[in-house]
Design goal:
Elements: E1 2-3, E2 26-30, H1 35-51, E3 57-61, H2 66-78, E4 85-89, H3 92-100, H4 107-113, H5 115-118, H6 121-127, E5 128-129, E6 132-133, E7 136-142, E8 145-149, H7 150-156, H8 164-176, E9 180-183, H9 190-213, H10 221-233, H11 247-255, E10 259-263, H12 268-274, E11 283-287, E12 294-303, H13 310-324, H14 326-336, H15 354-363, E13 369-372, H16 374-377, H17 380-395, H18 399-418
Parallel strand pairs: 1-13, 2-3, 2-4, 9-10, 12-13
Antiparallel strand pairs: 4-12, 5-6, 7-12, 8-10, 8-11
Helix pairs in contact: 1-14, 4-13, 9-10, 9-17, 13-14, 17-18
Length: about 425
């Protein structure tokens, strides 16, 4: 694995660290209400409570999209009651939170975990600023794989496509059988994620990173070509009612064999399993066309709010140490269907599910180039605006809408460049 993100080869597991007593319990916030995600929250909390039964961790799951979750975090922080531990974005939004003083350094937990050794250089670059760690990476998900209903494919004599031309042919055959091709869901991120392979297909990794750094203009021919590719090869094949439901509705349709495929994160596996699909038998995955030697990755980090009492800080550090430990990473990621960030996590933890074990193996392939989720590398508000623009174009892929979003995104890019809001992630 190479380039921006590299997860080191997994080796033996070690026991979770012993925790010191704290005066108060802590609350762990997340926006993971879906079946596999909620199981991951519960598994991590259960482990933490086993380690420190005198000071239990309680889980607060905030339903809805990430924008609503972010708003709840802001309300709590402004109200003087920031959560002691919470799931949040790493990358540029974390940098902004650090600069505003909303989060505290996690040096104690990082040092206890030996973070400089167990987390890869790429991960460290997204969670440390000026050499200080502000987040503990806890889960990695590949978001450039396509999940599919294996039984439906077998019934129709279909094989996973490796090119966009083959992808279109598979969609045509699904349509001929009365099935829809590609799932999607409303919201600023799901269409955005499905746009990434089109960026890579037309602009390459360099162009992708150029968008992340603000160096590539949105009124450039390259970006126009990426939109055209997305319109013709991806959005044209979305299920008909995708604007009326979230990603889980699309996943449900794939499990039910009403839709053939879903370009979705690794968490799809455990969600589908919770709905009765057997991983490896009923569902499988393959890289999006052109992504066989690449993987676009979502990274989840655990942060801690600033302004906590000394006792709460100590309890939060203890929980973060459990979450970052091999035992904590295994507990969370086995349940979530995600991949561990701590390189000491044993691969044996995933052996009960051969498909999950294959996901780990695929990601750790030395030839694999891994690339962070573009959304993590952009200013938060701009990331949402970008995603909303792509969602609008997916729903209305007309030349008028295309011109409108290009003009809007380019104006916003120029202002952000002038304000120094971007970051060069290739350094």
């Amino acid at each position: 694995m190479k380039t921006l993100l590299k997860v080191a080869t997994l080796v033996v597991a070690v026991s979770p660290p012993a925790l010191s007593l704290a005066a108060e319990p802590i609350e762990f916030w997340s926006n993971w209400p879906a079946a596999g995600e909620l199981a991951a929250v519960n598994a991590l909390v259960e482990l933490a409570n086993q380690v420190d039964a005198d000071h239990p961790v309680t889980a607060k799951v905030v339903p809805g999209d990430f924008a609503g979750y972010r708003q709840q975090l802001q309300i709590a922080t402004l109200g003087g009651t920031p959560p002691p531990a919470y799931i949040f974005n790493v990358g540029l939004e974390l940098r902004d939170a650090v600069q505003s003083g909303r989060v505290r350094p996690l040096t104690a937990a990082w040092t206890a975990l030996n973070g400089d050794e167990v987390f890869s250089a790429g991960l460290r670059s997204l969670v440390t600023f000026d050499g200080v760690p502000y987040a503990i990476p806890v889960a990695t998900n590949v978001i450039s794989d396509i999940w599919y209903n294996k039984k439906l494919f077998a019934e129709l004599g279909l094989t996973p496509p490796t090119t966009w031309e083959e992808f279109g042919e598979v969609c045509d055959k699904l349509a001929a059988a009365g099935k829809e091709c590609l799932a999607n869901g409303k919201g600023p991120y799901w269409s955005f994620y499905t746009f990434y392979p089109s960026i890579i297909a037309t602009m390459g990794v360099e162009g992708y990173l150029g968008l992340a750094s603000g160096e590539v203009a949105f009124d450039s021919p390259q970006f126009s070509a990426a939109l055209d590719h997305f319109r013709d090869n991806v959005a044209a094949h979305f299920m008909s009612n995708w604007t009326g439901g979230d990603w889980v509705n699309g996943a449900d349709a794939v499990v039910a064999a009403d839709v053939g495929m879903d370009l979705m994160g690794s968490w799809f596996m455990n969600y589908a399993a919770a709905k009765g699909a057997v991983p490896g038998e009923d569902i499988g995955y393959f890289p999006a066309p052109g992504m066989a030697d690449k993987a676009i990755i979502q990274i989840d980090g655990l942060l801690s709010g600033n302004g906590l009492s000394q006792d709460v800080e100590a309890a939060a550090d203890a929980f973060l140490e459990v979450a970052g430990s091999p035992a904590g990473q295994a507990a969370l990621n086995v349940a979530k269907g995600a991949l561990p960030a701590n390189s000491l996590t044993s691969p044996d933890a995933f052996s009960a599910n051969s498909l999950h074990a294959q996901m780990v193996k695929d990601l750790l392939d030395p030839a694999k180039t891994t690339i962070p989720n573009l959304s993590l590398l952009l200013p938060a508000a701009f990331s949402q605006d970008f995603g909303t623009a792509i969602e609008r174009f997916a729903a209305q892929p007309t030349s008028e809408v295309k011109a409108m979003i290009i003009e809007s995104l380019e104006a916003e890019r120029q202002q952000l460049v002038a304000d120094g809001k971007f970051n060069d992630w290739t350094e």
